[in-house]
Design a protein that fits this description.
Elements: E1 30-41, E2 52-70, E3 79-84, H1 88-110, E4 116-124, H2 134-150, H3 156-171, H4 177-181, E5 188-191, E6 194-197, E7 204-210, H5 217-230, H6 234-255, H7 258-274, H8 280-291, E8 296-300, E9 307-312, H9 317-326, E10 331-337
Parallel strand pairs: 3-4
Antiparallel strand pairs: 1-2, 2-4, 2-5, 5-6, 7-9, 7-10, 8-9
Length: about 350
């Protein structure tokens, strides 16, 4: 895949929905897709304006299908949601408010009357509460399913804004990095609401390992904010340190300095751990990844549970994965980057 280092453009519509007149009859069913993401560095600080590095995880996907029919006067609800798979019922309950808000915005902006009942089914393979962007991926898939159904054109900015509508309901003040990253096809830099694909000068694998314990981003954000309020100066210090680590990692990735990149991951984990966002199991997994030859490892996402992301060279990846599983990981996913990236997508 040829690398593009300009403004990210991967939030465009699926081909099925591009260039179709809104005056044609709607399709019986519309389909949309999205994928998981992992934050490499910058979580939490990105909410305060710091940069973040994010990575798409193509093995974990969401597919949404949307249908519509005339609203029954006896049924005042104009939206229904079904989620398939394990633990679908609590997941649907958690996502429903945000997706209901999203569909209302979609109707208002794109002229879909509220007399039409929307029936959405989501098949999500992304574990919930793991910092992998499951809520943003579901929202993005729904946006494109609705666009496909009603044959509307959705610009990259509108797609982002609609996903953010659902994310702000799910997480409070959402930074926007998830809304961008779940539509990306390559690692990206997110800063101040804009995203760019990252230049990559080295090869390796990011190994994402699920601790099996769900965290809640909203709780983690509130914990951090409360700590900042109680200890003057800590917010500035946190954001400053996070920015320094993320910028150093960005340069190391571009310059092919894998060891230096890995060191920034481990240091960022210490920053999050010191802020109370790690757990004993996550710390054990980080230590195990480093003991197995990993170049760096850290918690990824909101924290208080979730996943670890570790950086490894190809020859160390199997041992790092084995050590992570022995330390309590319930599943792992390997995402190659650099010259190997074309083999894993």
């Amino acid at each position: 895949m040829q690398k593009r280092h300009g403004e990210l453009s991967s939030l465009s519509l699926p081909a099925a929905a591009e260039g179709l007149s809104e005056h044609r009859a709607a399709r019986p069913v519309g389909t949309g897709r999205a994928r998981a993401k992992a934050i490499v560095l910058g979580e939490h600080a990105v909410v305060y304006g710091a940069p973040a590095l994010a990575l798409p995880v193509p093995q974990l996907t969401v597919t949404a299908t949307a249908g519509s029919f005339a609203q029954s006067p006896a049924d005042p609800d104009d939206f229904s949601l079904t989620m398939t798979g394990d633990k679908a019922r609590p997941r649907a309950a958690q996502a429903s408010d945000g997706l209901h808000r999203l569909t209302a915005e979609f109707r208002a902006v794109l002229g879909v009357p509220d007399t039409v009942h929307l029936d959405v089914v989501i098949d999500c393979a992304i574990p919930v509460g793991r910092g992998l962007g499951s809520s943003a991926a579901c929202a993005r898939a729904v946006v494109h399913a609705l666009a496909d159904l009603f044959e509307r054109e959705v610009s990259p900015k509108l797609a982002f804004d609609l996903v953010q509508t659902a994310e702000n309901v799910a997480h409070g003040r959402a930074s926007g990095v998830d809304a961008m990253a779940v539509g990306a096809t390559a690692p990206l830099l997110f800063r101040a609401g804009r995203a760019q694909e990252l230049p990559i000068g080295c090869e390796g694998l990011f190994i994402v390992a699920d601790s099996g314990v769900a965290g809640r981003t909203k709780d983690a954000v509130e914990l951090l904010r409360r700590g900042f309020g109680e200890r003057p100066g800590t917010q500035d210090a946190f954001v400053r340190r996070a920015t320094e680590l993320t910028e150093t990692a960005r340069r190391a990735l571009a310059e092919g300095r894998a060891e230096r990149l890995g060191a920034q991951l481990t240091d960022y984990h210490e920053l999050l751990r010191a802020s109370g966002l790690s757990t004993d199991r996550i710390d054990k997994m980080v230590e195990a990844a480093l003991a197995g030859g990993g170049l760096g490892a850290k918690i990824t996402g909101g924290g208080m549970g979730g996943c670890v992301i570790a950086l490894a060279r190809a020859e160390q990846a199997a041992e790092v994965t084995r050590r992570l599983l022995a330390a309590g990981a319930v599943q792992t996913w390997s995402v190659p980057f650099g010259g190997q990236a074309g083999h894993g997508r």
